[in-house]
Amino acid sequence: MPTPPLAGGTAGPTHLRPLIDTVLTALHDGATRRNGPLPAGGPHTVTQNLHHTTGPLIPDHGTGAHHALRTLVTALTEGAADPAHPHCAAHLHTPPLALAAAADLAASALNPSMDSWDQAPAASALETALTTALAAEIYPHTPQPDALITTGGTEANQLALLLARERHGPVQTICAANAHHSITRAAWLLGLPQPVVIPAPNGLMDLTALRHALIHHQGPLLVTATAGTTDTGQIDPLTDIADLTTTHNAELHIDAAYGGPLLFSPTHRHALRSLHRAHSVTLDLHKLGWQPASAGILAVPHHHDLHALHHHAPYLNADDDTDAGLPDLLGRSLRTTRRPDALKIAVTLQALGRDGLADLIDRTLTTAHHLADLIDKNPTLELYDRPTISTVLFRPTHTDDTTVATIRRTLLNQGHAVLGRARISNSLWLKATLLNPHTTPDDLQHLLTLVTDTHAHTEATTEGSTPR
């Protein structure tokens, strides 16, 4: 077998072009075979089909580039949960924009490693420009805000707690019951005290409970608020929380992984009032930013807030190289090798501009409200609440939690719809997290019909199996 060609250099595009054609054909063929938001049959069937299609993954003799690409990409696509399908709406799992995925291809072909300047000359400059611009969106009133690119909200939240620990020692975190699980996990990983978890009635941080916690716990204290919860998409009362943390000399971190991009919408940015008062902010553009994973951000109001992350490795950032003007990149992440995720984000922002991104956001939130309207008008369905961002919770009326869970799993096993689940107010709800700006009213109505038909069938089956 000849030596396989490389993706980089002047010859790289010539070698890539036919391979990309094979990949695109395989993506199309796999999606056609799936013919829905996810494969039917459940885990056992999907696993069995994948193994049958792919054969041995490490054969004695290679099958060749086109055969391997065609086989594996088709199999993966046929067995995928496709967030581009309007009935795939369970999680904060966005359908990436085609232009962002195309930019990601370029990043893979060039393969800059963002741990030293000599591996990523232009990519490091692009990342600096992008993080500076994004930090200024969050902290418009400070002279030198800064941001880091992370693998997502979990890493960004962990970095926020790490920086607080480096400023103050074993900081005590206070969060509400609606906080993302990564807050508790980060405290554990960092050897910090277990977070004080206060109530979140109706899905929002309880201000009276926060005031009590700030009074009765010894500092240093770090309050973590949420702008876009995983279960309901609700946004904590950020201004009131910021006022309380200021009064009680505590620091504030805001996990805006989901809701942060509302900053780009003149219609909806008011929901993030006081975001700039946080000592750190998590943002995640592979949610309401339509980026391929990963595209997380941790922003801070002052560049020097990140100095604690500095790390010295002589082969990557020797002192004399730094003194000679080579940028030191090791303090930009806890990771060493990392991809140039700035490229796809920068391409998207430049291609769409503020108005284009605002249109995507507004369109998506309008779709969520339309779904809520359809549920409200359907007497067989119950709406939990109006959506804050794009998450809609609902369930059939006069049913129990077991039936709700059964409906969800039935739709999954049939390959008809991907809906999430959330336990709120002691009840289990179906969760539709809408992130596809191309979803139509007909798509929404069809989704609800799938739910109501499945509920009716479940009820009829249950009644038929009950002894008289």
Automatic annotation (TrEMBL):
Write out the ranges of the annotated region (Disordered). 30-64
InterPro entries linked: PyrdxlP-dep_de-COase, PyrdxlP-dep_Trfase, PyrdxlP-dep_Trfase_major, PyrdxlP-dep_Trfase_small
Pfam families, per database record: Pyridoxal_deC (PF00282)
Whether Lyase counts among this entry's keywords is: yes
Question: Keywords in UniProt for this one?
Answer: Decarboxylase, Lyase, Pyridoxal phosphate
Cofactor field? pyridoxal 5'-phosphate
- What does the similarity note say? Belongs to the group II decarboxylase family.
Give the protein's recorded name.
Pyridoxal phosphate-dependent decarboxylase family protein
